[in-house]
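Q: I'm a student working through a structural biology exercise. My instructor gave each of us a protein and asked us to get a predicted structure, then write a short paragraph describing it. Mine is Receptor-like serine/threonine-protein kinase. I'm not confident about reading structure output yet, so if you can add a plain explanation after the tokens, that would really help. Here is the sequence I was given:
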Amino acid sequence: MANYATSFLTITVIHCWFLSWQSQATDTLKPGEDLREAETLVSSNGVFELGLFSSDGTSSSSHYLGIWFKNDPNQKPVWVGNREYPLMDSSGILSIRYDGNLVIQDRRQIPIIVNSGMLALTNDTIAILLDSGNLLLKEGDIIVWQSFYYPSDTFLPGMKIGRFNLGTQHLRKQFLVSWQSSSVPATGSFALGLDSVNATLLMIWNRQGALRQVGFWDGQGLKLIFKTSSDDYNFSFVSNTDEVYLTFDAPRSQSSSWFTMSSNGQIQEYKMVGQSISVVNHSICEHTTGSDATECYEMTPSRCRGGDTFSEITGSLPNSVVVNDSFHLGLSDCEILCRGNCSCTAYASFRNDGTGCEFYYGDTNVLPQLNGEGKGTLYIRGETPKSGEQNNSKIWWLVIILVVFVVVTIIMGSICFLRWRNYGSRGNQDSMRRILEQFQFQIGSNVAGVAKDKHEEKYRGLKDEELPQLSFSCITTATNNFSEENKLGEGGFGPVYKGILGGNEIAVKRLSKQSGQGLEEFKNEAQLISKLQHRNLVRVLGCCIQREEKILIYEYMVNNSLDSFLFDPTKKRLLDWKQRFCIIEGIAQGLLYLHKYSRLRVIHRDLKASNILLDADMNPKISDFGMARIFGGDEARAKTNRVVGTYGYMSPEYAVHGHFSVKSDVFSFGVIVLEIISGRKIVKSCHADFFLNLLGYAWDLWKEGKGLELMDPTLSNSCSTSQFMLCIKVGLLCVQERPEDRPTMSDVVSMLSNEKYRSASSKTASLFYSYKFLCFTNETNSFSE
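A: Happy to help. First, here is the predicted structure for Receptor-like serine/threonine-protein kinase. I'll explain a few features afterward.
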């Protein structure tokens, strides 16, 4: 009996293992089935595997849908299905939805349609992974969609790059786009594909729009500027009235081979034998291994005294670094921005995954002394100074540092003493009273007659005084010790928390120790915004300066920022046309006050959708004045070596040359207007067939008389056509390349408020986008997400 039981148990275990192996080895996903984290599809012969993966290998990081070689120990994806829409954690699920489309979603329950370019017509579909690495969505024998139509950064055997559906309204372009960094699969800085004019040329573009030919079809075969590790590749070039494309077959051997457009602009040639993978990096720039090219991306000679080459050392940048709001940029983008600004002497990435930019504008002789101090990689303009030069300057730097330390210690000691003497418990109570009186003014200003006048008279005496200061312990109590539950968000300055002070809601912005902004920006915002009073500007109520803590206290905005509504697929429906137009008018009124009617003539310099906050009535309020500049009465423009702001919203003259004026804010306003009426981000792709950024896409529609196609689909039932067309005109006028061609904010307010502009055929903006670093233009087979 015992033997019988043992045999039965053994057979049962083997049977369960076989069933489990069968279920894990399937290559097909059917309706009603889910693919979760750690579950995969495997092609019939075990060549490729499909599943969900994380950018850094942790469950809390961004997650993506990808395909990789089954035998690749690193599981580096060769295709990614949601590059620009990552899942927030490991709760992702892949399934075939009720309508037959392939979707992924996480615990937010917001579906991302993988096959959005070609939707299913029935709900009778299956998804199958082939041994070629191609993922198909099929209705019976009909292929609805396939992943080979939408390559990522990898060129696999059998895949095609080129243009399809020529001569139709459904032109489809297929090309490779690099990852943002080696671990982040979002759209990067480089693209590889066929030239849009001469399709026999194989080209690479960078985000500046610069071209570089890397190969051509001579009628018999593909000639590359570098030699591949094998001459057995069978490249084919097809050109007819319907399509033009390049494809290849793998070498005639047992190995698998493929090409990748890397995040640093190199073409990588991979070969896999078993689980062993070899790679050859083919650089297309001169004086580098694997290339016999005589030129590279740079089309014009360097204008910078230090040249445009960068040396690499290990370390971390000193505290004088400026950190841009640039999480969507890769290391190659950082190099482009630093190279274009001669004042930038070094750059680095401030995130472990190789994204985000930080720039250095100081003396490069200091940097080699930091070699080895930190685990990051720095890129210094020019050649690294020799060790002898470092030793000669080391003593001087020690003397300077010692003197600065002594001076700072004396100053900080004096400040602490004065603060202790003047801001004790009595001072803290007085500050609390003054802050609460500001709340009383806010309530009283809604009451008509004498009550309103009394509050205004009282508040008029308060607003010219020094900004009220609260103790750190008082703010800690108000925010529940800066708890995560009270955290509203985080920007370049630091985290923002919600708090309760005297029964009133407040917003508390706390300077982060890792922030690139420091005491100068803090003082600028505290002193500046406290002197500005307008219904479309966020009011600062008080501050806290205690030891290393630098904190600002604002009125609380119930509805957070404009971008949280505008770019959320669900919440954007809450913004009808009337509200959006009122928001545009409110922003314009706030800027007009800053530029013309405030006691201080102010240029914001960092105007963007995330810096427009919405109160309980959805009224817009401009916030974040840390980067603002005050102009004198006779000043019209200025120049800075410290270019700060947000990629996409910066005017060309400011981003390239550091020149800024009130017209720089006008440009940013124009970008926001186009974002509001279209519901699209400036840095996201606008049209699947043309790959223009938002400004170029809007301009093309305007020229073709198709301006209404820019409209956010959620506005179709509430939008006023005349107001919508007026907003396009205003937006395009504001984003003209030359500052002198842009209107003033007085002109903008007049246009928005005067009915005659809504029907008149006012002068059209004559735009030409020369700022190539913002996007790839259509003429260069553009791409931009």
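A: Here are two points you could use in your paragraph. DSSP finds 15 helices and 41 strands in the chain. Residues 387-422 form the longest helix (36 residues). It's a good idea to check both against the output above yourself.
Q: Great, thank you!
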